[in-house]
Amino acid sequence: MLVLALDTSTETVAVGLLRVPQDGEPTVLAAEAHPGARRHGEQLMPSVQAVCAKAGHRLDELASVVCGVGPGPFTGLRVGLVSAASLGDALGVPVYGVCSLDAIATVAGAGGPLLVVSDARRRELYWAAYDEYGERTHGPSVDTPAALAGRVTELGVRRVAGPVAAAYAEALGLPESPPGLTPSPAGLVASAGVALRAGSAPGPLEPLYLRRPDAVPPGERKRVNA
Questions:
Q1: Same-domain pairing of 21 and 58
Q2: What's 163-189 look like in SS3?
Q3: Number of structural domains, the chain?
Q4: d(CA 106, CA 110)
Q5: pLDDT tens track for 173-224
Q6: pLDDT by residue (tens digit) across 91-133?
Q7: With the C-alpha atoms ordered 38, 88, 118, 15, is the resulting torsion angle positive or negative?
Q8: pTM here?
Q9: Of 204, 224, 210, which is closest to residue 97 (Cα–Cα)?
Q10: C-alpha radius of gyration, the chain, whole number
Q11: In what order do the strands lie in the sheet with 114-121?
Q12: Are residues 24 and 131 located together in one domain of the fold?
């Protein structure tokens, strides 16, 4: 079956078209990644159309969509989820939401228990911890680098990976391994697991914001007496 995978939880917009057999490893037919710019709304759908064109398939051939649900900043994450939900509704196919940090851990390979981190802005990190088999043991959550560093021993992790791992490896006291990982189409599909292959009904497509947005409703207006 053909599966479209997309993620907008980080600075990188990642899109891929994969062929997923009932047994065996999925094959990435085409993929695009656009790092370094907060232009998720402008880049996502052109990337979807581009990977379909490269692979020689139409959107109406899709069997399902897999979308990273974060954690991630509000605006970028919302672009991905709304687009995935719209595609699923228009095409009549299921949309599977997966934790974007899980998608990184799934492709991180062997090397011991793992900490995955991504940029939460406000000088904070989104993070989750995984055992040596890639199963999530803690998180996802959000903390300052200092607070997270203080939990490294408790979490039992021995390495760190993710979009900002290189910048925080020293502060966390962990080696970056493997380097340069971001949520990838292959990782997203692998994280969707058995439910995707079986065609099971997906759960609600709910974003992992992990904290309230900056904007707040205005307070009650002051009354003016005549």
A1: yes
A2: CCHHHHHHHHCCCECCCCCCCCHHHHH
A3: 2
A4: 10
A5: 999 999 999 999 999 999 999 899 988 999 999 999 997 554 445 556 656 6
A6: 999 999 999 999 999 999 989 999 999 999 999 999 999 999 9
A7: negative
A8: 0.91
A9: 204
A10: 19
A11: 136-143, 124-130, 114-121, 159-161
A12: no
Tokens standing for residue 85: 């939900």
95 with 205: CB under 8 angstroms? yes
Question: Burial letters for 101-131: b for 16+ Cβ neighbours within 10 Å, e otherwise?
Answer: bbbbbbbbeeeebbbbbbbbeeebbbbbbbe
User: Over the chain, what is the mean pLDDT?
Assistant: 93
DSSP code for 107 = T
Spatial distance between the Cα atoms of 115 and 130, rounded to a whole number of angstroms: 6
The closest alpha carbon to 10, from 94, 90, 68, 92, belongs to 68
Contact assessment for residue 67 and residue 100, using Cβ atoms and an 8 Å cutoff: no
**Length of the chain counted residue by residue:** 226
C-alpha span between 157 and 3 (Å, rounded): 32
The Cα 14–Cα 184 span in angstroms is 6
Residues with Cβ < 8 Å from 180, sequence gap 6 or more?
166
* CATH number for the domain that contains residue 26: 3.30.420.40
Residue 91 tokens read as 């095409």
Instruction: Please say whether the beta carbons of 142 and 129 come within 8 A.
Output: no
In a domain, 135, yes or no: yes
In the numeric block, the tokens 């900490």 are attached to 115
d(CA 129, CA 201): 27
Looking at the fold, whether 118 and 9 belong to one and the same domain comes out as no
Could you tell me which of 24, 26, 25, 34 has the C-alpha nearest to residue 3? Answer: 26
